[in-house]
Write a structure and sequence with these properties.
The structure is a homodimer of 360-residue chains.
Chain A lengths: L2 E3 L3 H8 L13 E8 L6 H17 L4 E6 L10 H7 L4 E4 L10 H6 L7 H10 L2 H10 L3 E8 L6 E3 L13 E3 L2 H8 L4 E3 L3 H10 L4 E2 L4 H7 L7 E4 L8 E7 H5 L3 H35 L3 E4 L2 H21 L1 H35 L2
Parallel strand pairs in A: 2-3, 2-4, 7-8, 7-9, 10-12
Antiparallel strand pairs in A: 4-11, 5-11, 6-9, 6-10
């Protein structure tokens, strides 16, 4: 029944004859990589995806390919992971590429841009829609290659101390939100605030800021935002399906033996699903606990969503005019999205919406 | 910058010394598995996921772990894959486990049961919700272990020659639909028909049957159903996120060296995302072509959906009363679903629905 042919005596003979026939039992090189994460260990879901990759690669290669994962700040600060990989300080990183939006807006397309793809659509774009190819053509110019490794799913819109009932309510709002969304919201009078994760809680508590967005229930609960802001808004339209990536220095990647490269690629596929599934499994309980302790869930009013959508299109028009690189990625990504939405709104959304009402 | 230590002379020495120190360079066994697929090669998405696994495992192990994939009928018929794996005729299979619903209804929980989890929720259930554990406790009793490898996403409700406007319209309808859905629809007067894939087209053309369900646009277009039925209904509520699995004979799995086992597991993770992404990327174009050539898309009317939902609960009540095994899985699965829906209808569905309307 089982077709296993252990190399018994013959195998040992082949191994002993490695000089004459290295293809039979190859003395595998040992490869050691350092991987710098942009995240702290406490975010076990987003940080964990890099650990999944390291562990799996070690298992597959009998510890011949060893990757050590380093939390933000251990080797380089979380927001300098791209630079560290580019320069070769580390062979690899795990990061949200939209952190590097300031260098070139194209980096953001890899993670999430406002009113973009959801998590499943992103997987389709990356793997079968040409996304991986077109994005890495851009990334390689900086000497790095990106591998999809994780998604948070549609994020929440964040924690607000006051209700947002009209577009007018956005005026003067001091909102901890970054990148593209900050640019969009500026058009509507919001004053975006750049504050590191650990400093959000006191700023929100003191009222130095009026609102703050982070990720979703599973992570937000850990930071305790529900204790200092009552209203939890959704959806986080600027992050409909933020993707995380493992990035690798091009030279380190090129030097990898093909079997290790294959192990690395498969392990990243596993990390990708690990993160999304772990968030999905953990978010409901966290949300229930926060709602039970007083959090009020609120959807952004439709006119607010529409104003944000309109302002987003203005920002895209400005950004595509400034960067041909961004325009190329933008057009590819949204061309793909148009078809995805056409399809999703047929059976997928209809099924989800029916289930949401049937189980209410 | 790069931390690669090739085993040069020292490595060759270690290889030559394999008898004394086998842990340093182990003479890997060669393992050959035959994998029987339940699908024909023409369904490149669903069949392709098994090929992805075989190819990746070979790459990772330098062809030391070789899996040959065999289409339905090559070794055993498509619906006998479970039996072939159980008996050890083949080491592994790739199948939809609900085909074995007739043996025990619990098998169906692994693939899809009416008004069940969507594709992303299924991943969360399997990987982080205890689904893999509880299902494989059941599967191991038959001497097989299941690994998640693919999802089609919410399927379409199928091709109908006449419109379904009321619950009454279901009465006497000869509908090619199987398993659980057939039982549910029988309660509403449908006469379920069991017809193999290749025979559906002529039956629908001649009017021997009134309707037939298959998968979704990408696969349905290949079989040409749009040429013999005008109305394309959605959603396929009996398959909100059907999962495919690689199944392995327990003894073959236990005999696998740990590194090959790790390669197998990671490769299945890759196959899982491959299938879903390839369907998502391919469905929109197929749908557009069919709509352009006259296909009329129709949602099942709300009262029809509600009647089906109610009839489904009756079938679940009957089935859980008959099988304690099924009840255990059913309760676990739907307990998980309740929380998932609570969470999805907040930010995820709201985001998707806004995008669907914004891009209309």
């Amino acid at each position: 029944m089982q077709r296993r042919n252990f190399l018994g005596k013959a195998g040992v003979g082949a191994a002993a004859g490695v000089l004459a026939a290295p293809a039979i039992v190859r003395a595998q090189p040992t490869v050691r990589w350092r991987l710098a994460s942009s995240f702290p260990k406490s975010l076990d879901t987003i940080y964990g995806a890099a650990e999944v990759v390291a562990r799996r690669v070690a298992q597959i290669t009998n510890n011949k390919f060893q990757i050590t994962v380093h939390a933000a700040g251990e080797i380089v600060p979380g927001l300098q992971v791209l630079d560290a990989v580019q320069s070769g300080t580390v062979e690899a990183g795990h990061t949200a590429l939209y952190y590097y939006f300031g260098k070139e807006p194209s980096w953001a397309v890899a993670t999430a841009i406002p009113f973009g793809l959801n998590a499943r659509q992103y997987n389709a774009w990356w793997h079968h829609g040409g996304g991986e190819k077109i994005f890495n053509e851009f990334a390689r110019k900086s000497g790095v290659v990106a591998f999809l490794n994780g998604n948070t799913g549609a994020q929440m819109g964040g924690w607000f101390r006051k209700e947002i009932n009209t577009v007018e309510d956005l005026k003067g709002l001091k909102f901890r939100v970054g990148g593209f969304a900050g640019q969009v919201l500026t058009k509507l009078g919001v004053v975006p605030q750049q504050i590191a994760g650990g400093d959000i809680y006191p700023a929100l508590e003191k009222g130095t800021i009026d609102a703050a967005e982070w990720v979703g229930p599973y992570d937000d609960e850990k930071l305790g935002f529900n204790k200092v802001a009552k209203f939890y808004y959704y959806p986080g339209w600027w992050e409909g399906g933020p993707a995380l990536h493992s990035i690798v220095n091009q030279k380190a990647l090129d030097a990898l033996p093909p079997d290790f490269r294959a192990a690395w690629e498969a392990a990243n596929e596993e990390g990708n699903t690990f993160m999304m599934s772990k968030y999905d499994a953990g978010n409901p309980q966290a949300l229930k606990r926060m709602v039970a302790s007083g959090t009020v869930l609120k959807a952004f009013p439709r006119p607010v969503m529409e104003a944000c959508f309109k302002a987003t299109q203005e920002v895209y028009a400005e950004t595509t005019a400034k960067s041909a690189e961004f325009k190329k990625l933008h057009d590819h990504y949204f061309g793909f999205q148009r078809d995805q939405i056409l399809w999703f709104r047929v059976t997928e959304n209809t099924f989800d919406d029916f289930m949401a009402s049937a189980r209410r």
